[in-house]
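Following up on my earlier thread - several people asked me to post the actual chain instead of describing it. Fair enough. Here it is, all 228 residues.
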Amino acid sequence: MFLSLMSEVIKGLVFLALHVTGAGAFPRALSSKEEAELVKKCENGDTYAKNKLIEHNLRLVAHIVKKYYCGQVPQDDLISIGTIGLIKAVSSFRSDKGIRLATYASRCIENEILMCFRSLKKSANDVFISDPIDTDREGNALTLIDVISDNEDFVETIDTKIKLESLRKFIKELPVREQKILALRYGLYGYNEKTQHEVAKMLSISRSYVSRLEKKALSSLYEKFTRQ
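Reply from S.P.:
Thanks for posting it. Predicted structure:
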């Protein structure tokens, strides 16, 4: 759905799609000199430098996820959460902190993951709005959603609709093949969501080529959102 695709783009999780390439190799680690140059550019608002710092530190996310993975939260979700921590780290890091980016990022990634676990613990005894709480005169189950008032956040709803319209416009600006791949991968325009293998078979191209085009399309959408 468009909401699913928008979430990928808005949160910056486009970079998550880059965390494994081909046979499972991560983008190489940056040298101290390369990292220092990119950090300086990032501090001056260079989006490309920021993206490179995130991409080349994704192996750090995977390493920390392995440390905390216990089956309570799906591994893919933990990687997404950890990637958000990495993005926050790169966005807020300053070279005058006196520590390496990896050290600072590790703390941010761990904090994001631990916040997730704390949130799960707090909500363990929560009552969901779909839980039955009583029955009506006919014996039908009543849920919380049946009896509470409508507290919809209209500002958030309008903001989401605006972003969705922007996303639809940006997708139409992509090359036709990239549009097709996104439509198939994310279930847009009435399609069912499909794996990269399924898309490759439908389009008679390799899975790796589908992956490259998908990453390129997501990167383009992310850039368009950051510039608007």
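Residues 101-122 form the longest helix (22 residues). That should answer part of your original question.
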